[in-house]
């Protein structure tokens, strides 16, 4: 009997990608085959994203495409939390399940196309099936979020924080490392809040008990001998404790902190976690302990009520904080977000636009001067793409997909996943250029 074939569409952020990996892992484990095209597959699963209105549109379009090319469609992911929106446009989808509802996705798949029964054949590699390249992997440590930022609907979609026990996370990390993964990207909605919901409960890992705590988990991950990168960390005081691990080389000297803004007014209106912290002072102290720490962040300009003065505070803050990499979004109203009901004056579209350009210009200068400091150094670089004697890679200071690259020449062929020492010859505004030594 031929294995049933499932076509899979994964939309949204790296967090959704991890959900997709898990579903695909399960599908394969149960004997399904993953099809490359909707056409000819027995079923399509669409993992949707509902974070911004534009993402919802993209999700609805993907569902529409799957319906017309195949007709048997199961919808899961963030948009599954608002089934009416989906049914309104696509009344004939087979089933709709919410985010992280692995069991219900599988139940819907079983009902639509029962799995082939092959009890002696287990094709699943122990590290699971990954959609990301083999040499790095996203490690999701919790679901949901206890914060209530006013522009965000993730807590409404995904609920409060639910942390995985530390031993669970570490087992997965070890499996990935054993499968050849060289870099782990730790993700969650709020990584520094890890374990709060389960009162930092300890679990047994190897011969010891490990608390479900940001520091304890980072320390254990740091013992695995691979690169460990921390994403979505907030500048709470306890983050200070992790910086020495970075200075010792256990965890990458990299922090992804979505600051979103710097002006106290705007941060207050956004209800950002840790918004009262003196972040500049904190970053300075971190760099005293770990001088090569790279800080990446994202910001929103044009949040309702943002004045010219607030915006200038943000620009000055960028100069002072010396943020290595920054992404910037123009505020977009999200249906259901509290920011829309706050009675704050909207920032006109053309002002948002202009502020976005001013932000990017200022940040480019900061990034470029941070990158310039790397010229002449010999740095370890992980290879993401290799083409004989030329390759593209990243230093410890850059995460895949969101930060910059190192373009490398070598006298020897390079392979994806290698970590090489590269002498940095020059830098432009985004990338580095160097020679393997
Ligand atoms: S921290 Fe704020 S922006 Fe991030 S998921 Fe939680 S509520 Fe949303």
From TrEMBL:
**Primary site of residence:** cytoplasm
Cofactor(s) listed in the protein's UniProt record: [4Fe-4S] cluster
- The entry's [4Fe-4S] cluster 2-binding residues are 145, 149, 152
Q: What range(s) does the Radical SAM core domain occupy?
A: 131-369
The TRAM domain, residue ranges: 372-437
Superkingdom of the organism of origin: Bacteria
* Protein purpose: Catalyzes the methylthiolation of an aspartic acid residue of ribosomal protein uS12.
The name on file for this protein is: Ribosomal protein uS12 methylthiotransferase RimO
The taxonomy runs: Bacteria, Pseudomonadati, Pseudomonadota, Alphaproteobacteria, Hyphomicrobiales
Q: Which gene encodes it?
A: rimO
